[in-house]
Structures are given as C-alpha cells and as structure tokens.
Design goal:
The complex is a heterodimer. Chain A is mainly α. Chain A contains 9 helices and no strands. Chain A has one domain. In chain A, about 85% of the residues lie in helices and about 0% in strands. The longest helix of chain A is centred in the middle third of the chain and has 39 residues. Chain A is elongated, with a radius of gyration of 21 Å. Chain B is α/β, with parallel strands linked by helices. Chain B has a domain of about 130 residues: P-loop containing nucleotide triphosphate hydrolases (Rossmann fold). In chain B, the strands form 2 sheets. Chain B has a 6-stranded mixed beta sheet, sandwiched between helices. In chain B, a hairpin with a 2-residue loop joins strand 4 and strand 5. The chains are: A mainly alpha, B alpha/beta. Chains A and B meet through helix 5 of A and helix 2, strand 6 and helix 3 of B.
C-alpha cells in the first residue's frame, strides 16, 4: 500500500515537474523570439528538414485516410439508408475539420517530434548542448526557436496538402468503389464547404505544431544517460505530444464548433 | 599577493541522495595551470562545469574576478563564458557540421567578424593543432585524437583567457595522449592563458600542471605544486599517483 502511494506520489511529482518544465521552456521560447532575426537561416533549414521532407509521408497517409473515410461513410449510409449523394458532404466535413488536422499532427509527432527529441537528446548526452552554452550561445535560440517555429508553420501547411489529397482519395473510392459520379461527390463537398471550417482546422494545426515542437525539444533537452535515455525521451515525446494533441483537439471542438 | 581569478566558495552539489561536492573551496590565480585529480566519480568534471555554470550548485558561490556568476542573467553570463574555452571529454563536436564549421561557430555567432576573417582564424587554429587538412571533414570521419584536436581548435578559436580541459587524454593511445599534452602546454604558453584541467592521467597531470589539486569525498584533499605532489607523505595522494589498489582511498 505504502509502496503504491509512494509510486503514485513520485509519478505525480514527475507530472508536475514536466508541466513546469514545459511552461518554463515556452517562456524561454517566447523570450528568444526577440532574437528571431539571428535565427532566420536556421528556421528555413528546419522548415525544409521538418516540413518539406514530411510531405511524401503526409501524402501517402492522406490518400488512404480519404479513401477509407469514403468507404466507411458509404457503408454507414447504406446501413441507415441515407442517400449516397451526401457522401462528398460528409467526407469533406470530416476531413477538413477533424481527420486531416489530427491525423497529420499525430503522424508529424511520430516522424518529426521523435526526430527532434532523438537529435537534441543525442546532443545533450554527448555534451554538444553544453558546448554551445560554453561558447555563450543560447541553446534555446539556436536549437529550440527554429524547430518550434518550423513545426508551428509546417503542420498547417501540411494540413492544407492533407485536405486536398484526402479529398482526392475519397473521390477515387467514391467513383470507383461506391459508384457515384465525381460531379455528385464534388457538388456535395462544395455545398458543405465553409472557409471557417478550413480556418479552424488550420488554427488547430498550428497549436498541434507548437505542442509537437516544444515537447520534442523539452524531452530532448532533458534526456539523460546514453542511448537508452535518448530512446526513453523519444518515446515520451511521441506519447506526450499525441495525448496533448487529442486533449487540445477536444478543447478546440468545444470552443470552435459549437453545437 | 596572488591575483585571484576564479573562486569556488563553499560549493555544495548533490545528485539525488548522492553528495558530489561538499562545501568545496578552490581558488585559481591568474596564470595558474591547475590540474584537478581524483578517482572516477569524485566530481572533477562536475567541478569544472560549475566554473561556467553549465551546472548550478545547490549552495555556494562561483566568482570570476570577484563577481558571482550565479547571479548573472543569460546575457551577462554569455559574456563571461566567451572568456573561457572548454575542451570536453568527448570533444563534443557538432556532428552535423564540418570541422571548420565547428571551429568557426562561436566566432560566427558572436557577429564580430566578417566571413573572411573567420575563415582565416579557423585555418590558423586548425594549423596550430595540425588539422588544417581535415577542415572539410565531418566529425564522424575523425579518429579519437583528431576529434580532441578539433575540439581544442574550437575551444581556442576566440582566444580565451581561461582554458578548461575535461580529461584531455582519456581514451587515447599513449603517443597521441603525449601529443595532446604537448599541444596543451604549447597553447598555454603561446596564448598565455589560465588553465584548469581535470584528469586522472598522472603523466598528463605532471606535464601540464604547475599546481595539482586532489579531490576526495567532495572536498579538496590536497593542493600543491608538482614537486610537492611527487615528494608528498600524504598517503592518499601517494596511493593515487602510484595507482595502488591498497591504501586509505580504498580502505
């Protein structure tokens, strides 16, 4: 019983420390924005490495997300007897509001968040971050700022692509698998499309990007030990980012999409 | 009176329940070449990192020319840190950059020099450590000794006043280790720097030092010149420098 309580207490302390650490790093990140002009080349480097290079993966994921959405929606429509001409409308809403932002962010957390933590964690355990500090260079400005900004901008950018590709995937399945015409599908999509939905989806995506960047950097900065420490930090970064994305997604749903 | 340059005053540092430094006091005078010895786990590297606040003590003060660096904000601390050069145990080269980029990074980020000036300084420093030919290589292409030399070139790139060496010869063969020792002695003489070196390699310590400090149980257990160390009757120091498994340290 005592051991259980002790463990619970220790985990509680760890949780509080993590929240405190993430908040501190966020404050340091905001402060470092004052010197953003000195990190512009590093930001562009990260935009390419973290964002543009994620594009092929996002395209593959989005095609299948769109395709399965169309298929499953058609299956449900058949079950409840709904007209298939509403397929474009249903799939379009689901993709733009939920599927593209959330799934792109989760995939981005797995690819980029893990990569950031592994890179910074290795730099931490091999004293490269200490070396930066010893030269009077702020690791937050040099390492955190470019990565978090890249995530902040690249997730929405990727979501725009994901929206388009997922709708195309859904269209292919709708035409070839469900046997409705492309005009019917696209008209349904157009009738239900609202810029506000797209905008809200992109707002969500920016916040998800920030979460992925800051959590990835925090876990990397706090990696301890050797390879196993970096591995644990990487796992923690993906798990924490994914959970936070889903929690914030619910909060956004309540705030942005009022019933 | 000696010119007090660096001071560690009543430093206490624990990791978890383990106390590493326990009310430690140490003064380094301008121009000193201090070598800190002690067995593994005694906190030698921890002590070194306190000097530029890479580690913050639980208690105590770290002073440079009388100013407590623990009370400085990041900008003030950065200015102080630029007066130091540090060679890390693993060299800590940035593995995404070439050797030349590693050496030039601090200069580039200081935004004091033009690119041409930086390139010239980089080549000058690499030549000093006989690595001019390896300027365009990546750290992964270098041997252990070359990595240490590249780390050394990076540490001296901005002509620091104080050099910190963390285990400069660890993991190197005796010949390469001696080359590194000679390089450190030459650099200390040529650049006229104050240096603090952490090592458990006594051959290296005798070559580099003009003053040797031994750490034991988180405190300074001995502080004297090379001659005093060689002729000491202190059983603990004797055991350490002879590398004997029997004696007061292991009892």
């Amino acid at each position: 019983m005592n051991i259980g309580l002790e463990q619970l207490g220790r985990r509680g302390m760890m949780f509080v420390r993590k929240i405190g650490g993430l908040s501190m790093l966020s404050v340091q990140f905001v402060n470092s924005l004052k010197k953003l002009h000195r990190s512009i080349p590093l930001v562009f480097e990260q935009l390419y490495y973290l964002g543009v290079r994620s594009l092929p993966l996002i395209i593959i994921i989005s095609v299948f997300v769109g395709a399965v959405s169309a298929w499953q929606a058609a299956y449900q429509f058949k079950f409840i007897g709904a007209p298939l001409r509403l397929l474009g409308q249903a799939v379009g809403k689901a993709v733009v509001i939920e599927l593209a932002p959330v799934l792109s962010a989760i995939v981005f957390a797995g690819r980029v968040g893990a990569g950031i933590t592994a890179e910074l964690g290795t730099m931490r355990v091999t004293e490269q971050i200490d070396a930066l500090e010893s030269m009077g260079i702020s690791p937050v400005r040099y390492l955190v700022l470019p990565r978090v900004i890249a995530c902040l901008f690249m997730v929405p950018f990727l979501v725009v692509f994901a929206n388009f590709i997922a709708i195309m995937g859904a269209l292919i399945v709708a035409v070839n698998g469900v046997a409705i015409s492309s005009e019917t599908f696209l008209n349904g999509f157009k009738n239900s499309f609202e810029f506000q939905d797209l905008f809200n989806g992109l707002i969500k995506a920016s916040v998800f990007g920030y979460i992925i960047g800051i959590v990835g950097c925090y876990e990397g900065f706090n990696a301890k030990g050797g390879a196993s420490g970096v591995g644990q930090a990487t796992t923690a970064a993906v798990v924490i980012s994914s959970v936070l994305i889903l929690i914030f997604n619910f909060i956004f749903a309540v705030i942005l999409f009022r019933i | 009176m000696a010119d007090r340059f660096l001071e560690l005053h009543q430093i206490k540092k624990s990791f978890g329940r383990q106390t590493i430094l326990n009310n430690l006091n140490l003064t380094v005078n301008r121009g000193d070449a201090v070598v800190i010895i002690g067995k593994s786990g005694e906190g030698k590297s921890v002590l070194l990192k306190h000097l530029i606040k890479l580690i913050t003590p639980d208690e105590g003060e770290v002073r440079i020319e009388g100013e407590n660096i623990l009370q400085m904000d990041f900008n003030e601390l950065s200015i102080v840190r630029r007066r130091f050069g540090m060679l890390f145990q693993s060299a800590a080269l940035f593995d995404s950059m070439t050797v030349a980029e590693n050496v030039g990074l601090g200069l580039k980020e200081s935004r004091t020099y033009s690119k041409d000036v930086i390139d010239n300084i980089v080549m000058e420093k690499l030549s000093m450590v006989n690595l001019a030919d390896a300027a365009d290589k990546m750290p992964s292409e270098l041997s252990g000794g070359m990595r240490k030399r590249a780390g050394l070139a990076r540490a001296i790139a901005h002509s620091p006043e104080i050099m910190l060496y963390d285990e400069p010869t660890t993991g190197l063969d005796p010949i390469t280790a001696d080359m590194i020792n000679n390089l450190i002695v030459n650099l200390n003489d040529r650049l006229n720097v104050t240096s603090v070196t952490v090592t458990h390699d006594m051959k290296s310590a005798f070559k580099i030092a003009d003053r040797i400090v031994m750490l034991y149980q988180g405190k300074v257990a001995f502080d004297g010149s090379v001659e005093e160390v060689k002729n000491t009757t202190n059983a603990m120091v004797k055991q350490f420098i002879t590398g004997s498994s029997e004696g007061p340290i292991t009892e």
